Amino acid sequence: MRSEVRRRLTDVALLVVLLGLVAVGALRWVDTTAYPVVVLQTAAPFVAIGLLLLTVLTAALRRWWVLLPVGVALVVAATQVAPAFVSHASPDATRDLTVMSSNLRVGRAQPTQLMDAVRFHAVDVLVLTEVTPSALEGLRREGADSYFPQRAGEAEVDGYAGTMVLSRYPLREVSADLGGSPNRQPEVVVTVDGVDLRVQTAHPAAPIPGQTAEWRAGLRALQAWKERQTETGPILLVGDFNSSSAHPGFRAVADGLDDAQRTTGSGWVRTWPYAGSRLPPFVQLDHVLSRGLTVIDSGQVAMNGTDHAAVWGSYALPDAP
């Protein structure tokens, strides 16, 4: 009798855990500005890991009838996770361009490390968010002015709002600010070997309490910009999106674009949080999105002083018109 009660209690406990994981996983499809939901959506990778562990535990306990719904949930989660581990890049193509995005954490990022990463990966276009005048001065001392002779955007003493684009190639500012965010989001055109690349920087408001509606409006502004790009030329959307592929708003922005990390099958990419947090990095907030370019390679670079890892993507250009 006691063993039967224990088995039933075990079944109930397993099902409660399953329902909890499924509930959190289902939030992926809830487009809302409710702060608890926005935060829980970033836990999507842990749902897949939790379901895998639950499957192993259920099988080890030989609770076969519970294993069926657990297994079904795991398969559904796997269909969401697996594409991020499958590469659709063209690694044998000729590299024409490398683009990097780095959030400087209000100018605190270590400039020597950043410029070392820039040189190591032969970065051609660098998008900086949360850039301050002092951060620019630090980069200048490390040779940024000679490496990147072209620049657009503004540094801000406040820091959070400052966004700049540094380029080795001719650069023309189209707009000083997209709007829809308290942070500057300039739009530029970079000309590489006769090909014009339209680059929109991204830094919507962070989804902190009391600011989630503003955060969602910022993603809508980026989505609207993408939808206005009806010409056939290549485009790039680059920066700190303060959102991941688990957020419906970000997926609407990224729809039809190639996320460099996802296209190269990089798997569970984590760009935040790093320095200054007790949490280990667990979510990708920084992205390099493109259309009309061939993705060759991608990667991430963590550095001292900033809570964001930099992300980069390498591309082959289309033929010049």
From TrEMBL:
Keyword Transmembrane on entry: yes
UniProt domain Endonuclease/exonuclease/phosphatase: residue ranges: 100-308
InterPro entries according to UniProt: Endo/exonu/phosph_ase_sf (IPR036691), Endo/exonuclease/phosphatase (IPR005135)
Highest taxon, organism lineage: Bacteria
MF terms in GO: endonuclease activity; exonuclease activity
Transmembrane segments: 12-30, 36-57, 64-86
Keyword Hydrolase: yes
Listed Pfam families: Exo_endo_phos
Keywords recorded for this protein, A-Z: Endonuclease, Exonuclease, Hydrolase, Membrane, Nuclease, Transmembrane, Transmembrane helix
Stretches assigned to coiled coil: none
UniProt protein name: Endonuclease/exonuclease/phosphatase (EEP) superfamily protein YafD
Originating species: Humibacillus xanthopallidus
